[in-house]
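Budget justification aside, the reviewers requested a transparent look at the raw inputs and outputs of the sequence design task funded under Objective 1. We therefore reproduce one unedited record. The lines immediately below are the structure tokens for a 583-residue chain.
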């Protein structure tokens, strides 16, 4: 074949290939045009969905947590809006964020920040710093750093600080209850987050809100039972007493006799719930409901009540306590002095261990522990407070003579301060047991009768005699009011025996004795400055707290000639006749 023929053949081959490529390209463009026409005319929804997927987002709307208020409406726990700074690490690293500038704005270490970004490079959400004040957060966001955004959240604030710390507890960074009433009332306080659809640009910045999908539902406000003023006064007086007596800890609980409401509950030591950076676990517990201790002589009114209920004794019954000791098997029970022959009321006035043990041993061995259980010992108070202890009441197989004898004056069983206050409220209400409430009660609480009213009525004047010059707690007296109560000074159990120099000093009382409205229990743990008797350590605290509580509640004074007699200023025979008023 000639050279010219070969060239002509090659030209024809090239032209064929050009036409083929042209036809393929034309087909492709035609297909694309047809597809575009189809999407724009027939299937427009596809393009809209694809665009929305790249620009529309569904965001959560934080819900405001309900407030905790005192019985008068004063805010005690409030959630305030704050801004948390977060980042899209993938976006930030892709656009070369200036981490040095960001670290300066957030006041964090740059090396820490770089390490976090590197570790979470593939993520699209990472908290950098939470709960910043709005003005600081605005400064950070104003820099316009790529991938850095703000999110509105809520931080819990407690205006009363240490005063209400153990009662209220606290929430975590996500505003969820972790301790105390914040935890117990979580379902009521917690809000339901909302949802909204927003439009964001290619850099992730929000352009506008498109639609509200579900509105945020705030949590409920809850009115608690206690008065913030009473709570503060109780806290102040307890703190001063702990310092004065060099004590390890202490607690005070005040209850409304008619409703079972907690009017005040304070503990020492306390903590600041608004600044928990150095908080230790042992500081968080509410000692009034979690710590168990042997109540000592504060149990004697219940021993006397069991004796009167048995029918074997009356208020006039006599007990020979000579020579001031009683031996039960290998256990020697002692009184502070030799009181000789005493009546039922004097058991409480002088706090006789010997006479209490005589009662316990004279009754069937199950009588005393069964009676204590009925009053509420060995079980929780019905308050629902997280972590509440039930105390310990020995099981029947442990009800041997020695155990029953010591149980009569408060050893061999354990209680909480709240239990002790509730049991005295049962006496104060005429024998009606009412569950404890941390919530404000608006309607009458009928309660359950667990003690005959006649017996309860006899116990109160016996306990009044304790707050006299003849009794063990004259320092519990409140000017203008008749006070009934009982001291307790119990050795602390330690390493399987009782410490000779560590005590639980207690006073529990009620006022006004003519018609009790308030019961208050004060417990001081391990006073070390010389005094340790309940009548010298806890009774003065009771007096100051009770005086202010009655004043704030507008309770009328009831001091009378009979009260003067109990103070040792008139012949005491009138008191004896009152005790003898029936079995």
């Amino acid at each position: 074949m000639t050279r010219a023929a070969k060239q002509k053949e090659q030209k024809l081959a090239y032209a064929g290939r050009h036409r083929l490529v042209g036809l393929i390209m034309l087909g492709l463009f035609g297909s694309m045009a047809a597809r575009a026409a189809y999407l724009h005319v027939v299937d427009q929804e596809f393009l809209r969905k694809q665009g929305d997927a790249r620009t529309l987002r569904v965001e959560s709307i934080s819900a405001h947590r309900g407030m905790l208020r005192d019985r008068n409406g004063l805010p005690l726990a409030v959630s305030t809006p704050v801004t948390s700074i977060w980042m899209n690490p993938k976006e930030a690293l892709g656009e070369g964020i200036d981490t040095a500038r960001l670290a300066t704005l957030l006041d964090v270490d740059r090396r820490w920040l770089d390490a976090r970004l590197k570790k979470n490079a593939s993520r699209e959400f990472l908290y950098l710093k939470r709960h910043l004040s709005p003005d600081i957060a605005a400064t950070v966001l104003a820099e316009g750093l790529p991938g850095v955004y703000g999110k509105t959240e809520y931080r819990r604030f407690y205006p009363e600080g240490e005063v209400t710390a153990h009662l209220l507890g606290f929430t975590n960074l996500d505003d969820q209850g972790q301790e105390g009433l914040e935890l117990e009332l979580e379902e009521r306080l917690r809000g339901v987050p909302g949802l909204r659809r927003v439009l964001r640009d290619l850099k992730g910045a929000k352009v506008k809100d498109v639609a509200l999908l579900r509105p945020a539902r705030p949590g409920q406000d809850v009115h608690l039972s206690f008065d913030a003023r009473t709570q503060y006064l109780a806290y102040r007086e307890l703190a001063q007493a702990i310092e004065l007596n060099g004590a390890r800890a202490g607690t005070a609980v005040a209850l409304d006799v008619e409703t079972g409401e907690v009017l005040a509950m304070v503990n020492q030591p306390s903590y600041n719930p608004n600044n928990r950076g150095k908080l230790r676990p042992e500081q968080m517990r509410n000692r009034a409901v979690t710590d168990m201790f042997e109540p000592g002589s504060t149990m004697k009114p219940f021993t006397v009540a069991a004796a009167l209920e048995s029918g074997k004794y009356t208020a006039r019954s006599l007990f020979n306590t000579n020579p001031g000791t009683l031996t039960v098997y290998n256990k020697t029970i002692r009184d502070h002095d030799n009181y000789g022959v005493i009546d039922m009321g004097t058991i409480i006035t002088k706090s006789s261990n010997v006479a209490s043990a005589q009662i316990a041993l004279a009754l069937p061995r199950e009588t005393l522990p069964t009676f204590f259980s009925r009053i509420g010992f060995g079980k929780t108070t019905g308050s629902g407070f997280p972590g509440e202890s039930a105390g310990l009441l020995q099981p029947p197989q442990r009800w041997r003579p020695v155990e029953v004898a010591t149980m009569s004056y408060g050893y061999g069983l354990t209680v909480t301060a709240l239990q002790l206050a509730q049991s005295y409220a049962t006496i104060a209400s005429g024998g009606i047991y009412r569950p404890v409430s941390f919530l404000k009660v608006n309607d009458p609480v009928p309660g359950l009768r667990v003690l005959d009213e006649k017996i309860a009525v006899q116990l109160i004047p016996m306990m009044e005699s304790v707050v006299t010059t003849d009794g063990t707690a004259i320092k519990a007296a409140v000017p203008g009011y008749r006070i009934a109560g009982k001291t307790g000074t119990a050795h602390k159990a330690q390493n399987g025996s009782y410490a000779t120099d560590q005590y639980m000093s207690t006073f529990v009382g009620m006022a006004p004795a003519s018609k009790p409205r308030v019961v208050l229990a004060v417990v001081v743990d391990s006073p070390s400055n010389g005094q340790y008797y309940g009548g010298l350590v806890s009774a003065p605290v009771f007096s100051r707290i009770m005086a202010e509580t009655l004043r704030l509640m507008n309770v009328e004074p009831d001091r009378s000639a009979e009260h003067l007699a109990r103070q040792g200023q008139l012949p005491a025979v009138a008191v004896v006749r009152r005790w003898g008023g029936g079995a």
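Residues 569-583 have pLDDT under 50 and may be disordered. The longest strand covers residues 497-511. Computational costs for records of this kind are itemized in the attached budget.
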